[in-house]
Amino acid sequence: MAPERPAIFLGTQVVATHGQWAQRCQQLARQFQAAGLQPGDRLALFMRNHVRTLEVMFGAWWAGLAVLPINAKLHVREAQWIIDNAQARWAFVTADITSDTGEDLTGLERIVDVDSPEADALWQGPGPNETPFDTPVTERQPDDLAWLFYTSGTTGRPKGVMITHRNLMTMGLAYFSDVDAIGPQDCIAYAAPMSHGAGIYAIPHLMAGARHMVPPSGGFDPAELFALGQQLGPLSLFAAPTIVKRLVDHAEATGLTAQACGQAFKTVVYGGAPMYAADIQRALRVMGPRFVQIYGQGESPMVGTALSRHHLQDTAHPRHAERLASVGVAQTPVRIRVTDAQGQDLPLGEVGEVLIQGDSVMTGYWRNPEATAHAIQNGWLFTGDMGCLDADGFLTLKDRSKDLIISGGSNIYPREIEEVLLHALGVAEVAVVGAPDAEWGEVVVAFVVPQAGHTLDTAALDALCLQEIARFKRPKRYQIVASLPKNNYGKVLKTELRQRLG
Ligand code: AMP
Known about the structure:
The chain is of the alpha/beta class. Among the domains are: about 20-140, Rossmann fold, CATH 3.40.50; about 405-500, ANL, C-terminal domain (GMP Synthetase, Chain A, domain 3), CATH 3.30.300.30. The chain has 18 helices and 26 strands. Strand 24 and strand 25 (about 440-450) form a beta hairpin. The termini are far apart. The structure holds adenosine monophosphate. Adenosine monophosphate binds near residues 274, 327 and 400. Adenosine monophosphate (AMP) binds near residues 274 and 327.
């Protein structure tokens, strides 16, 4: 690899070459070791997206430590719970994470604010007349812990997902086999939280010697990303469907052609939540063929299925519409099955639980053998997602099993209704949940967000449902709301919507 090539950017400003990045990793590793941190110890990162994230992550791995990523939007007390549960020894933080509450983290040997002079001292490399540091990489085994990722925990306490070096290597290689080719001229933008999948996508981009860019805003600002893409060359990024939608809105509002979008973006990998067929069709129309979908979960990070650029574009295929609504086919390193509650394979087309097996699947939950035994049985990960396979291996997700609505004894998958309602004039977003009902067990309720300047007529929505889906699936009630509750990764919190319905 060329050590003098720029590697890490803050916007358009180079903050490290590949050589400097490696030097800083060694420098940090040397100091972790000097402080007595041992291979396998957990080092927390409770930071908004920051250029130093990459150096801390890879510096920790250089010293054989396990990285404990914590979403910067969590409350300090939630982060504290994770830190205590994982028994982290050090934490790297950005000042903003505690400023809202004024509460500090406790129980750590050292807390380093990455923007402080204390951090600058840790980052201080050898002087001009000193020999470069030479800290050997601490050797680790494929099954050693590398990334301890706590699930978002919409119900109950979050669980620590143990991701090993083998899992991360598999994820990195699967990017090349199933998502995209990467070259040294490429540039990944960290617009989604680096504590999640977006952060570990650093691995394939580092393998390929590509560039890494943290936007100065630290997050997702469509205008900023378009501008940075124009200046740095087309960007690749991971984006949740809500973010894709905002990119497309921006392109449309500013009248950018698909060709102009291609100058700013090479590849937008989307996943993490359902992408409705109408939305991806519009994205392809406005921004052109620069999308790839992945389906995975923290327990098999970024690796499950992929819907390739080719499949998204293959409009001549007789089942193109179904494929657009699917999450694609199993990624190369894994196998996928759909089973009934007893773990028996279901015939093609029948909906059951999605199971994943392969080298990307976690070894288990941190110090939680019970939850591990529930999630991994006979080497297969039970994802909790419901879906069905077609004869070509395309997986279509329905809903998570807990979001399924059972009304009058019939199973209703909310997503099917959401897909229909999204086609209605003036509808921006929809979430369908079940509300308890004495007669039916549950009834279907749709929360609908109107587009700006539109007033929704629920009779028209009902008429559309009557035209498109079975009568019993129609929402019995509509609630027009200004926005939907979402978690820090942009996923709609259906648990919260159900609570509203009592
Ligand atoms: P997390 O563990 O927080 O990454 O959440 C993973 C969950 O997000 C999965 O189990 C799915 O329910 C959902 N998910 C991930 N990718 C997709 C996708 N491409 N389409 C629909 N849902 C997805």
